[in-house]
Amino acid sequence: MRLGPLRRRDIARCVEIEQILFPGDDPWSSRAFHSELDAGNFYLAARPDESDELLGYAGLAVVGRRRGEYEATVHTIGVAPEHQRQGIGKALLRALLVRADEFEAPVFLEVRTDNESALALYESHGFERLGIRKRYYQPSGADAYTMVRPARTRDEVAG
């Protein structure tokens, strides 16, 4: 598997995966993905070594002005169901965290409170639960945890 930039021609497949992964909520539209790329946010695609098939995708936004004032937010991570439990989500998350570490930024995200596998993944990468956003996901009304991984300095990343 290889990671590389998400391309606009990948968006139709991203939308298909979203509809499979989030049927009871409001899956991202083509417009949402285009907007993220237009904004210059950091988006990755996971592909098999031997083809251009899209296995998964992930996105991160970083905001701020200078060192110590940046914050990063994981906007999405999605892996096609037939490719889950193969380390793709972990690889995508790690790549997003490397990008956030370049800015020495804390990383925030929201995750469904009932998504055990995602919670385990995030907690294994240093995320902590900050609180609950009631009825965050719509239209299902599912709750979400807000989680944070503290900023890592260059010395911490290098060590």
UniProtKB/TrEMBL annotation:
Residue intervals of the N-acetyltransferase domain: 1-152
Keywords: Acyltransferase, Cytoplasm, Ribonucleoprotein, Ribosomal protein, Transferase
Signal peptide limits: none
GO cellular component, one term: ribosome
Annotated Pfam families: Acetyltransf_1 (PF00583)
Family: Belongs to the acetyltransferase family. RimI subfamily.
Keyword Protein transport recorded: no
Catalytic activity, EC: 2.3.1.266
Superkingdom assignment: Bacteria
Keyword Ribosomal protein: yes
This protein's name: Ribosomal protein S18-alanine N-acetyltransferase
Molecular-function annotations in GO: protein-N-terminal-alanine acetyltransferase activity
